[in-house]
Design brief:
The structure holds two protein chains of two kinds. Chain A is an all-alpha fold. Chain A is built from eight helices and one strand. The N and C termini of chain A lie far apart (about 160 Å). The chains are: A mainly alpha, B mainly alpha. The interface of A and B includes residues 1 and 9 of A.
C-alpha cells in the first residue's frame, strides 16, 4: 500500500508550477492586453491629475477673484468710513470751538441763543443756558412793567406838583398886588397866568427841563440825567429824587 | 535579478516584458489549479500582472524569491476573489466529525502527474479548499476568511475532498486512472 500524503501532493504541484503551459495559450495576445490596460491606466491617471489640477486652478482663481472683490468692497467701505469720520471730526471741532467760545463769552452765547429763538430755528444750546435766558427775559419783562408803572406814578405826581406850585404862585402874587384894579388885576392876572403858562410851557419843553435839572444838580448827575432824557424824551421831570431812582432802574 | 526589480520599480517597459515572459507559465499554473478555466485564467493573469507592475514600486522587494512569493500571493488572491464572485462553495456544514483525517492510500504506483490529475478532477469547492490547505499551507481560519465562509464549511469541504480523492484512487486502482 502506497500512501499519498500532503507533502507528496505539494511537491507534485510545485513541480507542475515550474513546467511550461501545455494548453493552447496565446502569450503575446495576453501581453498586448496587459499593455493596453497599462496605457489606459496611465492615461487615466494623467487625466485624473490634469482634472484635479484644473479644478485646483479653478478653485484658486475663484477664491482669488472673490478675495479681490471683497478687498475692493472693503476698500470702498473704508473710504466711506474715513470720509464720515473726517466729517464727524470737523463737526466735533466746530462744536468744540462753539463750546469754547460760549465758555469764554457766555453773554454772547445767550444773545446768540436769543437770536436763534427769535428766528424760530432749532437751537442746540444747552438747556441751562436757555433756562437762564428765559429767567433773564422774565426779569426784564417784570422790570419793564415796574418801570412803566413808576413812570405813570411819576407823571401823576409831577402834574399834581405843578398844579400846587401854580396855585401857590398865583396866591402870592394876589397878596403882593392888592391895589390894582380888577381889570388890571385881571390883565395882570392874565399876564401872570400867561407868564406862568409860558414858564410851565418852558418847563415842559425839553430844553427847559434840561436847564432846570442841570442848574439844580451837580455836574456828574447832569450827565446821567441827560441819558434819561434821551431814553424818555416826553417825560416831565420835577422831582430830583425820583429822577435818580429812575436812572438807577434803567441802569 | 536585483536590476530587474529596480527596473520594474522604475516602470521600465522592457523589464515588465521580461517579468511577464519569465513568470507567466508559473502564475498560469498557480491560477489554473483553482479556476480550471483557460479564459478565466487569462483574465485573472492580466489583472495580476497589472497589479504587479503598478504596486511593485510601493514594496521593498529585493530578491527573486520574495518577488515570486509576492506574485503567487497576488495570483491566488485574485483567483479566490473570482471564486467568491462565482459562489462555488455553499456555506453549509453537513458533517459533524470532520477532524478525522484518513490518509490517501493506494496499491498502484501514482506519479506526480497522476496526483495532479486526481486533484484537478475534484469539484470546484473541494479542490479550492484542498489546494489552499494542502498546497498553500493555509489553516481553516485563513481559508474561511479568504473565501468568506465559516471554518466548519472549510473543514467539511476538505474532508469531502479527501474522501472524494480516496474514491478516485479506488476507481483508478480498479479500472486504471486514464
Amino acid at each position: 500500500m502506497n500512501r499519498i500524503d500532503d507533502q507528496k501532493v505539494r511537491s507534485a504541484f510545485s513541480e507542475n508550477d515550474e513546467r511550461p503551459i501545455v494548453e493552447d495559450f496565446d502569450k503575446e495576445d495576453l501581453w498586448l492586453k496587459i499593455e493596453r490596460n497599462l496605457q489606459k491606466r496611465s492615461l487615466h491617471r494623467i487625466n485624473w491629475y490634469r482634472s484635479a489640477a484644473a479644478v485646483l486652478i479653478l478653485v484658486v482663481l475663484s477664491g482669488w477673484s472673490i478675495t479681490l472683490l471683497k478687498y475692493n468692497q472693503i476698500k470702498t467701505t473704508n473710504r466711506q468710513l474715513m470720509s464720515i469720520i473726517d466729517e464727524k471730526e470737523n463737526f466735533l471741532e466746530f462744536q468744540k470751538k462753539q463750546l469754547s467760545e460760549s465758555l469764554v463769552n457766555p453773554v454772547k452765547e445767550i444773545s446768540r441763543a436769543e437770536k436763534k429763538e427769535k428766528s424760530g430755528g432749532e437751537s442746540n444750546v444747552d438747556a441751562s443756558i436757555l433756562s437762564e435766558n428765559a429767567k433773564l427775559k422774565a426779569e426784564k419783562e417784570s422790570l419793564l412793567m415796574t418801570k412803566a408803572y413808576l413812570n405813570k406814578q411819576l407823571d401823576i405826581l409831577s402834574s399834581k406838583n405843578n398844579l400846587l406850585a401854580d396855585s401857590l404862585r398865583l396866591f402870592t402874587e394876589k397878596i403882593s398886588k392888592p391895589e390894582e384894579s380888577p381889570q388890571i388885576t385881571f390883565e395882570s392876572q392874565n399876564e401872570s397866568e400867561k407868564k406862568i403858562d409860558t414858564k410851565i410851557n418852558n418847563a415842559y419843553s425839553p430844553n427847559a427841563k434840561a436847564k432846570v435839572y442841570m442848574s439844580d444838580l451837580p455836574v456828574k448827575r447832569q450827565g446821567r440825567r441827560m441819558k434819561i432824557q434821551i431814553f424818555n424824551p416826553g417825560e416831565p421831570f420835577r422831582n430830583s429824587a425820583n429822577d435818580v431812582s429812575i436812572f438807577k432802574l434803567f441802569k | 535579478m536585483t536590476e530587474l526589480i529596480v527596473a520594474l520599480k522604475n516602470g521600465n517597459h522592457k523589464a515588465q516584458k521580461l517579468l511577464y515572459d519569465t513568470y507567466l507559465d508559473y502564475l498560469f499554473h498557480v491560477c489554473y489549479k483553482y479556476l480550471k478555466d483557460k479564459m478565466l485564467c487569462e483574465n485573472i493573469l492580466s489583472k495580476v500582472f497589472l497589479n504587479i507592475f503598478q504596486n511593485i514600486g510601493k514594496t521593498d522587494i529585493q530578491t527573486e524569491v520574495v518577488l515570486k512569493a509576492w506574485m503567487r500571493k497576488i495570483c491566488i488572491n485574485e483567483a479566490l476573489m473570482e471564486i467568491r464572485k462565482k459562489k462555488w462553495i455553499d456555506n453549509v456544514v453537513d458533517i459533524d466529525n470532520y477532524d478525522i483525517v484518513s490518509p490517501l492510500m493506494t496499491d498502484a504506483n501514482v506519479n506526480n502527474s497522476d496526483i495532479i490529475k486526481m486533484v484537478m478532477s475534484l469539484p470546484n469547492g473541494y479542490r479550492t479548499v484542498f489546494c489552499l490547505y494542502v498546497i498553500e499551507g493555509y489553516n481553516h481560519a485563513e481559508i474561511a476568511q479568504q473565501l468568506a465562509i465559516s471554518e466548519g464549511t472549510s473543514k467539511s469541504q476538505l474532508y469531502k475532498a479527501r474522501t472524494c480523492l480516496q474514491q478516485i484512487i479506488k476507481q483508478t486502482e480498479g479500472g486504471g486512472y486514464e
